[in-house]
User: Fold these one by one.
Assistant:
Number 1:
Amino acid sequence: MACILLLVRDAENRHTVEQAIQSLSAHTIEEAPDGATAIQMVEKGGIDLVLADTETDAFDGFEICRRLRLKDKTAAIPVVILATAQSPVELRLRGLDLGVADFIVLPIEPLELLARLGSALRSKALADEVRRHNIELAGKVLERTRQLEELAGELRADRDTLRDTFNIIEDGLLLVEASGHVQLENNALRHMLGEPESWRPASGERLLSGKASETGADLTMRETLAALARDAAAKNAIESRTFSLHGRQFEARAYPAAGRRILLYVRDVTEERDREVRRLQSEKLASIGMLAAGVAHEINNPASFVLANLEALAGLLQSLDGQTGVDPKTGKRLGFGDVLFEAMTIVQESKEGMARIHRIVRDLHAFSRVDEGTTRLTDVNAAVESSMTMLRSELRYRTQVERDLRATLRVRASAARLGQVFLNLILNAAHALAGGNPKRNRLYVRSYDDGDHVVVEVEDNGPGIPPDIMPRIFEVFFTTKPPGLGTGLGLPISRDIVRSAGGELTAESTPGRGALFRVRLPAAAASAAEAPKTLTSHKAVQRRRLLAIDDEALLLKAYQRMLSA
């Protein structure tokens, strides 16, 4: 049942319409005296259809239809126009443009009238149903949109949390699709592989994009990571590679992840490799030290009894010189004095040679001390002299050495480890000088007191160190020496030794004028317990018997000769 608003001026037509509606339907009828009232009644609500003619006042059926369509509340109310057979076609076209629901041409059969009104009402009901569904659908869309926005916010928060977690990790992380497209990477990867970020593909870009700018180390690195990702994806297993970039060592591992993606984990292993190499080098030096200590011991025993025998022989020759009783003129005439003098000279030279051997053995033993980490009061000059003694043959045909070592320079350090430092610096200086020209080549070794520090300088007049190489001379594995002569470990290890003693190792160089390496160490005063002890004289004691035990029979005989003399 619907409520129909009538606005029909002609009384006969109005009566005909009312009779038809009331007799054949259950619809109710409301009447409006004019168009303005009709619009007000519709706006109040309760009206389902407007039936108006075109012969009313200024608010005819067309004007009512136009005004109702202007407001959302009344736009869906159907307007049916009563017309006559004489109504022009233009009038109908105007109505269609305004949205008139139907035209009823009088006279008309009551059943047709009701059928047309019913059709207009059904169209309104259908429009109302569509509108209601649209409103419900819009509500659902809005609710779903809100849920999606909340979910998107949660996803953004999760993504930000994941990115923050990625960036907190100190090692490099790179998430790559199976196709090679980069999804995510962290700051550590960018920092460890170097700035600017020209090496790095942007998110969504392929790991190997084929850009013309990809050359050299950057391309090698990207090829390594791309190959690693491909292998891990193909085998569905963890794969690893190592590569070098910007002078550093990196280890990369690829882990298969969900969604056919690959997580690349990259870490800088330079320091780890350095520690391992230094550990191996330390073990190697320890082995060499043990071997050198054994060799020194084996040389020291025969050298000791040879030196003792030479001392005894010198004493015998001295006694023989005083007991011959030969007149000097006679001795000269017989040549006996010349022979005795020559024999004494030979013995003296042999003693000097054996003393040199003894010093070399002593220095070798000091260099090979297994307790090289022990810190004690150390004579810097003695460590320098010991190192130069061991390098005597290396220096003899290369350069002239000028020493300027000030007396009593002591530091708290390991004598053996300081010896390694000076040995390395002096050997490097010798290698920097052109061989075969010892008259021109000069190597200067100086030590002096600089207030609360002791300074040792090793300087040469060689070609010097190029400016582009100077910043790298203390890098591990960096060397300019030919293969077999340098490992790139000498200077880094030397600097570590000096720093462990609280000092610093620095270098200066002018190309074409040589290089200078300076060791600066904190000076130390001898404590009462460590100060050199002076020997005190004792009164002569009566003769006693001495038991000597040694595995060298010749050494025991030498002891016997010396003690019996």
Number 2:
Amino acid sequence: MPSISAGSESGGESSAPGDLCSKEIQDKVKDVIAKPVTFSVGPTGDCEISQDDPRGLQGSFGTVENASTNGGYDTYLTGIEATMDQVSKVQVAGLGDQAVVFTGLPKMGSGENFMAGGVTDHGTYLLQVTLTQGKGMARPDLEAVAEGILRAIDTASS
């Protein structure tokens, strides 16, 4: 999955949400995943999620500030698509200016387990989620989790 580090916040029409790894957001994400999950703040400031079982769901979610100077929504989509084979793209209604979730098999390495990436465009910033798993989670289930996390973190930007 593409990783775009957050820059300083620009003063556009809307500002990026604050702490996406807050207890409130963690509780919402736990409800989406419906299994025990651990949260930590990663080196780029994204909120990282993991399960005790290394074959479980792993990933991160966060904000891409100054989206237009970081390539914007379309560039982010291109990056997600470039990391996967057998890509499925699902539009997500009701989030930001536009939102989408991708699932597919990893291009690098081998694997039969789907990975997911999702992004919501808020003009001056993007909200993103990246998920990997190693337990044979079905594509529709992984799409639902990615969409649910996007919806949970989108509430922080409202």
Number 3:
Amino acid sequence: GAGESTAHLDDRLGGFTLATRRPGHGTYTGSTRRPRRPGAPRRGPALATLGDHPAPIAGHAILEPAWEEGLEIRRRWRHDLARIRREVVDEVKLLIEERAEETAAWIGARAHAVRATYSTPDKPAVTQIPVLLELLRRLNYPDLPNLTADLTDGFDMIGALRPGPGWRKRTDDRYKYPASLDTLRQVNADYVRRKVATANTTSTPRPPAWLKTNASALPWALGATELVEPPPGEAFLAASFAIIQIDENGEIKIRRGEDWRRSGHNTTISADDVPTHHFIGAFVDLARRMAPDGVIL
């Protein structure tokens, strides 16, 4: 049934992504009456009292605990940070070499959908998941068993999402009333039929039988050179699309997005927490705290 695996395609130019697991207006206040004539000016507070009301930015910036710890570590080791960074990078490289056989065996034991996520034709080296999990274990990362399961079997794309460690509880009802799987089946099937009928689509997994369409491999298309069987259980499809960006070196970077909203996947999500988002004010506070140490961001 649903909830077995997630399939991601290495298809930058479009196609279908299979997923059997999770992938205010302001108010204006006014008056229609004519304004009164200006009265006599009132005496305001003396200018000397302006100092009693400093701007908020002039106060001591309070950071979240993780950033406070990072600043303390930097102050303690500031004269040795360059050496420490080099040694950490060297140790990670050594760990990758030592675990090369383990990583190869691990990726070989994964389902095709998971392997396609961690190894693509344009990236010969696979993602070092066993090394990542070992580093997180050494750092006492909370909730490591659940993260290990997600990285091994696939993240949930529909249904209830696991709480994130340290995430704040939601204060809205956005994901409180998810749609049912029966609703998703109908919405997703209609969505897929429209896409197949009106668009030039490519897909690595073989289409489900209910779609009643013929499919063939595309030897000239990266990531669609062969058809593979979809993951076991019920599968729901979403179109993927290219997102073109420019990286820090001025080079074109292409990543893939998925149309989870129109495909119906997002309507099934239920979650009671929200990840931390850092807005510009948080980085301004960080810069203010680092400035006394002689660091200019």
